[in-house]
Amino acid sequence: MITYDERGGFYDHVPPPPGVPPGDRSNPRNNGHGFQFDQLGVRVPTVVVSPWVPDLRTAGGSCNVVDNTVYDHSSLLATVERLIAVPPLTARDAAANDFLHLLSAEEPREAPPTLPAPADSGFRCESDHQELVRTEEEVADDLPEVAAAVRAFVHLAAILDTRLRPEHRLRIGDRARGHDQGPGPASTWSRWPRGFGPAGLGGDAA
Q: Cα–Cα distance between 137 and 105 in angstroms, integer?
């Protein structure tokens, strides 16, 4: 299922229909406008790709199924819930239409072994014929200096990782410190203290 979170600002001539309120508990202080969540929004594109979608070409029609059923984003939840028989999370997904009726082919369709070549837009860039491979030094020169907070976060993550996987302590420590490759951003990750005890990176496991 390929869908979108937002419509991207495109105009929709179809007025949004009402929706079933989820009915879950929420803090009224977080809803300053008193919205009841009983209204759906504008439509977003959704594509269902499956070998179990019927092939309409055998009936002389298009190879695509255009479905006019009203769905919302909780239809994704409803489909999974009904497919594996688990209870709904809220009243919204309990009432939502699912996609299961689209998977109604008697047997799976044959997938094409090759796809047609994409259409040539005719648009050309000046860099199309230039060498785009860059050396490690050129890439390192463009890297910004890593913030101290980020270095500390990676260091803390490495320490926690060694507590969960003490047998990989040395390898995790090497990855966190990196290798000193001289001045510049590439060496920033190697500036780690090396004297950690059992709870850190450098000592033997306790």
A: 55
